[in-house]
Amino acid sequence: MAYDRYVAICHPLHYVAIMERRSCTWLVAGSWLSGIPVSFIQTTLVFTSPFCGPNKIDHFFCDVAPVLRLVCADTSRNEMSNIMVTVVFLATPFTLILTSYTCIIATVLKMSSPGSRHKAFSTCSSHLVVVMLFYGSGMVMYLRPRSSHEPENDKLLSLFYTVVTPMLNPVIYSLRNEEVKGALRRRVAGKRLSPLQ
């Protein structure tokens, strides 16, 4: 999405040529297929480790970090793998997205029409909010040292990036729609004006 916004705003006349069906297919296929070897390597590293003691995971789902707490051997290889995966699949895309939005903001600020600037900013702001929420909570979760991981905080952070952010996603994007904004304003104004029952 960030690349699509970048091309649409920074290179609008070349948009159709750059974002053709084949380019989009390659972008989607690359993002899907790049996760397969990573998942395979992480799963292999975790489940070839010796487990002992309790077999209950203190977490909402079977994430790598809570499963590693059950391993009764040195998990430094697993932790190094997790850090590398986090850098490659969280920090790198996040940096690329921020770079594209820096270019977008520079282009938008050069626009002479205030209406065009407003439209461009409103189009990009919702995506940027969702990106910040998702990547921010994911990086806080996975880039912290193991010593600072507490089960309760980990559960809260993972709940945030797996449940809260996807739930907010449609709300944030629908608030760009003028009809939805108007209905929300009428609803809020109606609640304030209605008498207490």
Q: Could you describe the 3D structure shown?
A:
This protein has 197 residues and is mostly helical. The protein has one domain (2-20, 42-193). The chain is built from 9 helices and no strands. It has helices at residues 2-10, 15-18, 21-33, 35-47, 64-68, 76-109, 114-142, 151-174, 178-193. Helix 1 runs parallel beside helix 6 (76-109) and helix 6 packs antiparallel against helix 7 (114-142). It is globular and about 65 Å long. The protein starts with a helix and ends with a helix. The model has no long low-confidence stretch (mean pLDDT 82).
Question: What layout of secondary structure does this protein have?
Answer:
Blueprint: H1 2-10, H2 15-18, H3 21-33, H4 35-47, H5 64-68, H6 76-109, H7 114-142, H8 151-174, H9 178-193
Helix pairs in contact: 1-6, 4-6, 6-7, 7-8
